[in-house]
Amino acid sequence: MRYKVSMRESEEGFAVWVPGLPGCWSQGRTQEEALENIKDAIAAYLQAVEELTEGRLSSYVEVG
């Protein structure tokens, strides 16, 4: 899957977040490190969503 991420330079390096996944963010000393770290954050976010919705009525839809 591909996710659009936004990035901003900060005093500590680079902050990066996923606009489509509220609260999903990370950081890194370099742009490359921040982008690698956000991959882990996205995976953890999606795992948490799966756990929180387990046993609930859910469906999947495909867009585009």
Task: Describe the structure concisely for a colleague.
The chain is an alpha+beta fold. About 35% of the residues lie in helices and about 20% in strands.
Q: SSE layout and pairings?
A:
Layout lengths: L5 E5 L2 E5 L7 E4 L2 H23 L11
Antiparallel strand pairs: 1-2, 2-3
Shape: elongated
CATH fold description = Double Stranded RNA Binding Domain
Q: Profile the largest sheet.
A: 3 strands, antiparallel
Would you list the SSEs in sequence order as H and E? EEEH
Strand content: 15-25%
Distance between the termini: 13 Å
Mean pLDDT score, rounded?
Answer: 95
Oligomer: single chain
Q: Main sheet: which strands, in order across?
A: 1-2-3
Integer count of domains:
1
Count of DSSP E strands?
3
Helix content: 25-40%
Summarize the structure in words:
The protein is an alpha+beta fold and 64 residues long. It has one domain (6-53): Double Stranded RNA Binding Domain, CATH 3.30.160. It contains one helix and three strands. Strands 1-2-3 form a three-stranded antiparallel sheet, covered by helices on one side. A hairpin with a 7-residue loop joins strand 2 and strand 3 (25-28). The longest helix is centred in the middle third of the chain and has 23 residues, at 31-53. The chain is elongated. It starts with 5 loop residues before the first strand and ends in an 11-residue tail after the last helix. The mean pLDDT is 95.
